[in-house]
From TrEMBL:
This is thioredoxin-dependent peroxiredoxin. Its EC number is 1.11.1.24. InterPro entries: AhpC/TSA, Peroxiredoxin_BCP/PrxQ, Thioredoxin-like_sf, Thioredoxin_domain. Pfam families: AhpC-TSA.
């Protein structure tokens, strides 16, 4: 599980086109990485739309935003196109990033336990180190809160 001061994990993800990229490629600039359980579900859609609504402000602050789920790249592309999303969506099908960030957790719903992605956000500074972590995120107002923290770097 990542803690403040830890480096960006050296994990490989796939973009919506199925092209691999390394997350540590972003070292040297601030970065927001957020994990969400599943594309095209209400909470995940609202979160992606909120980050998209603030995309120009994140860009002005020089902070890329990457949303990660275990969905297949094709599903992410469909999700992005359906809602006109401008954030980078990445697929972690094998779960390597979820394991490295500590977001693959036991969850419970209606008395049933299962493994799933914890909604969490990580803010990295320009040196590629974790500056702040939000776990068990509540979507409303979250993207704006992260933006303010990113601007304060």
């Amino acid at each position: 599980m990542l803690e403040p001061g830890d480096a960006i994990p050296a994990v490989t993800l796939m973009d919506m086109e199925g092209v691999e990229f390394a997350l540590d490629h972003y070292s040297g600039k601030p970065l927001v990485v957020y994990f969400y359980p599943k594309a095209d579900t209400p909470g995940c859609t609202n979160e992606a739309k909120d980050f998209t609504a603030l995309a120009d402000e994140y860009a002005a602050a020089g902070v890329p935003v990457i949303g990660i789920s275990r969905d297949k790249p094709a599903k992410l592309k469909k999700f992005s196109e359906k809602y006109g999303l401008s954030v980078i969506l990445a697929s972690d099908e094998p779960g390597d990033a979820c394991a490295a960030f500590g977001t693959w957790v036991e969850k419970s719903l209606y008395g049933r336990t299962y493994m799933g992605i914890e909604r969490a956000t990580f803010l990295f500074g320009a040196q590629g180190k974790v500056q702040r972590i939000w776990r068990k995120v509540k979507v409303k107002g979250h993207a704006a809160e992260v933006l303010e923290a990113a601007r304060a770097l």
